[in-house]
Design brief:
This protein has about 450 residues and is mainly α. It has 3 domains: about 120 residues, no CATH class; about 240 residues, Clc chloride channel (Orthogonal Bundle), CATH 1.10.3080.10; about 40 residues. The protein is built from 16 helices and 9 strands. The strands form 4 sheets. Strands 1-5-4 form a 3-stranded antiparallel sheet, with no helix packed on it. It has a two-stranded antiparallel sheet with strand order 2-3. A two-stranded antiparallel ribbon has the order 6-7. Helix 5 packs parallel to helix 10, helix 11 runs antiparallel to helix 13 and helix 14 crosses helix 15. The longest helix has about 40 residues. The relative contact order is 0.09. GO terms for molecular function: voltage-gated chloride channel activity. It comes from Ascaris suum (Pig roundworm). Keywords: Chloride, Ion transport, Membrane, Transmembrane, Transmembrane helix, Transport.
Length: about 450
């Protein structure tokens, strides 16, 4: 069994590494039978940096095509290259024998790439590495029982991961909704007998038949907690003082937590999530500290009365959950391109728990957020969003058997004759949209941008 090693300096490693993105130099090293060739064009280097020789329709490497498929970091700080036809050894390119080809097929699966902060992933390279990993698993699938079990685990790991993400996203959304309601009512008072209940549930427990908010003896205001019961000017001044004091305290605590522990927890997070799903790497943005601080901060910020919502942050939190759980499965955690499949499903789950719309979450992830969205990801996204919505419905955080805070209850059912008007609205919208698209194409074809692009 032959192996080919090359000792590279740190400077050469940055220029030629297939493991990390190139920094400062856009040149790449390619293996050909004739010798060593460097590509200085960054646009071409990104496309040509990976040559794959597997059974998914990619032609085998020849004397005119690069065949470097895989690079590994060894324990001695060197790089080892393996490919189906050629290998790089020191300063020369040498051909592999048939024995070496069999070694390349039977060797351990590739070590996955790790990108630096604020870098863009190489989609072709990572997907090629995943194909090599999948090919390795198929080659050992007949090794009963461990090969068979590992193959089945690898095949179902995607569904297991999105199931875990859906369960966790629904539970976290329910906890945030319950916590925000309790903290919001805390500004007015507290349930004397059961302090963990918000005002509505406290008064429900005190009234067996009818909920009476105005006459609820179980709920105690803050002036009453201070043994002041006369409802005069001083009583209402105390209420305003406690209300404003709790609001300022919650807002200040939110700002302090975000600034000190997790600066990435600020904002809605949706623009950054779109960048990450497009292939950009932001280390720590989907980490554990960001998840914890944003969960607590979202409860405090919503309860403080700030003019903000939880829809955008819920997408960020769901993606944090997806990123954390993806590391339980090396297939996704160590491959940035495959990890985006889990993050796309997580974004769908975030919209599902925020609006109570699983299908809307899938459409959001497909149309707005994701860059790489294969068909299998669509089904997994729907499954993840559906599980998250079911868990939120079971938790029933609003006490109304609804997954959203605001909903409409219709006292009358629609009749069959109303379908005519519904169909008319759909037909009218389709016609208007078609005419608009046609006029845009006609205008762009007739009037070209010539001299003044901003005006034209």
């Amino acid at each position: 069994m032959s192996e080919y090693w090359t000792n590279l300096t740190e400077e050469d490693s940055e220029r030629t590494s297939l493991i990390t993105p190139s920094r400062g130099d856009s040149s790449f090293v390619f293996g050909t039978l004739g010798g060593r060739r460097r590509m200085m064009d960054p646009s071409r280097a990104r496309i040509d940096s990976v040559g794959v020789d597997d059974e998914e329709g990619v032609s085998p490497a020849s004397s005119a095509a690069p065949a470097l498929v895989h690079a590994e970091h060894s324990s001695r700080g060197t790089l080892k290259y393996r490919g189906g036809a050629v290998a790089y050894n020191g300063t020369d390119i040498v051909g592999l024998s048939e024995h070496d080809d069999s070694y390349a097929d039977d060797a351990a699966p590739p070590i996955f790439s790790k990108y630096g902060d604020f870098h863009t992933i190489d989609w072709q390279r990572d997907l090629a590495r995943d194909r090599l990993r999948h090919k390795y698993i198929l080659g050992h699938k007949k090794e009963f029982p461990f090969g068979t079990i590992y193959g089945m685990w690898d095949a179902g790991s995607g569904w297991i991961c999105v199931l875990m993400v859906g369960l966790a996203a629904g539970a976290v959304a329910g906890i945030i909704d319950i916590g925000a309601r309790w903290m919001s009512d805390l500004k007015d008072g507290v349930c004397a007998d059961r302090f963990w209940l918000d005002r509505e549930h406290c008064c429900w427990s005190a009234n067996d038949s009818v909920y009476k908010d105005a006459d609820c003896s179980a709920w105690t205001s803050w002036p009453e907690m201070l043994q002041y019961y006369d409802k005069n000017f001083f009583y209402y001044t105390l209420e305003v003082f406690f209300y404003c004091g709790w609001s300022v305290l919650m807002a200040a605590l939110t700002v302090t937590l975000v600034k000190v522990f997790a600066p990435y927890a600020c904002g809605s997070g949706i623009p950054e999530i779109k960048c990450i799903l497009s292939g950009f790497v932001i280390r720590g943005y989907l980490g554990k500290w960001t998840f914890i601080i944003k969960s607590v901060g979202l409860i405090l910020a919503s309860a403080s009365g700030l003019n903000l919502g939880k829809e955008g942050p819920m997408v960020h939190l769901a993606c944090c959950i997806g990123n954390i759980f993806s590391y339980l499965f090396p297939k996704y955690g160590l491959n940035e391109a495959k990890k985006r499949e889990i993050l796309s499903a997580s974004a769908a789950a975030g919209v599902s728990v925020a609006f109570g719309a699983p299908i809307g979450g899938v459409m959001f992830s497909l149309e707005e957020a994701s860059y790489y969205f294969p068909l299998k990801t669509m089904w997994r996204s729907f499954f993840c969003a559906l599980i998250a919505g079911i868990i939120l419905r079971i938790m029933n955080p609003f006490g109304s058997d609804q997954t959203s805070l605001f909903h409409v209850d219709y006292s009358m059912k629609w009749t069959f004759i109303e379908l005519i008007s519904f169909a008319g609205l759909g037909l009218f919208g389709g016609i208007i949209g078609s005419v608009r698209d046609y006029r845009i194409r006609f205008y762009m074809g007739e009037y070209k941008v010539v001299s003044f692009p901003k005006i034209e």
